[in-house]
Specification:
Blueprint (H helix, E strand, L loop, with lengths): L8 H5 L9 E7 L10 H16 L3 E8 L3 E8 L5 H15 L11 E4 L6 H14 L12 E3 L6 H4 L9 H6 L7
Antiparallel strand pairs: 1-3, 1-4, 2-3, 2-5
Length: about 180
């Protein structure tokens, strides 16, 4: 075995439970963090997959963020299919719709949102992601983001005119567990 900083993806699966009705925050990356995802065709493919999973009863998406080299997805599981299957289906849809040749990093990160945690904090973290990454300015909107919260989250009512965040939010919300 070679040395170096090699990630043990099997560690990510330890303790993974797919519980119907639970809300999950998942993140998955392109292999070597290749920046190839932030395009309209990939985003539309992601939205189409979300619609199919919702109509098929697999999951209900709360928020979906397509970044250049990774995806954040916040959803409630609605079937016994499991979160691994949901992620595999999304990875497949995004991969076949993309004209660039790339691979996905093995596995994914997931966090089941506990009853004492704020689902809104995760949605806000996702919303602010492209701002924190410097991909857009505070008066711009990221076109590869979907938020489907009903009723709306309180942070949505606090956005500046045009749906923009306050600049101080961008530096403040770096981890949803600290919100």
């Amino acid at each position: 075995m070679g040395g170096g900083n090699h990630r043990k993806t099997t560690e990510l699966r330890k303790g993974r439970i797919s519980a119907i009705g639970a809300t999950y925050f998942v993140t998955f990356n392109t292999k070597n963090r290749i920046r190839c995802l932030a395009d309209i065709k990939s985003f539309q493919s992601g939205k189409d997959r979300i619609e199919k999973l919702s109509k098929g009863g697999g999951c209900k998406t709360i928020s979906f963020m397509l970044m250049p080299d990774h995806v954040h997805w916040l959803f409630s599981l609605r079937s016994e299919t499991g979160i691994g299957s949901m992620v595999r289906q999304m990875k497949f849809s995004l991969r076949i719709s993309n004209p660039k040749v790339f691979q996905w990093q093995d596995n994914f990160f997931d966090r089941r949102i506990r009853a004492d945690e704020s689902v809104e904090a995760y949605a806000l973290y996702m919303f602010l992601n492209p701002y924190r990454a410097g991909l857009i300015g505070p008066d711009e909107r990221w076109p590869h983001y979907l938020l489907d919260s009903k009723p709306p989250f309180p942070f949505e009512a606090k956005l500046r005119e045009g749906g923009f965040p306050y600049p101080e939010w961008i530096d403040k919300v770096k981890d949803p567990l600290l919100f």
